[in-house]
Amino acid sequence: MTSVGGxxxxxxxxxxxxxxxxxxxxxxxxxxxxYKTSMGVHVHITFIFNSVFAYIQTYNASLSFARYLxxxxxx
Length: 75
Prior knowledge:
Elements: E1 2-4, E2 10-12, H1 21-31, H2 40-74
Antiparallel strand pairs: 1-2
């Protein structure tokens, strides 16, 4: 999700569920043109943090799913 501030700068809001990497890439391309605003540096740092956080969430979910599949196979 993205909120647009009064000065035109975007600020990334952390989604409830981890988005897919494709979604993150699309969001990055959409917001790239806003990085030249006065808030650009802050937005960029926030975006990178949220992207990494979303990637870790997705990675953890895939790990637990793989564990679940192994448990099913061994049962």
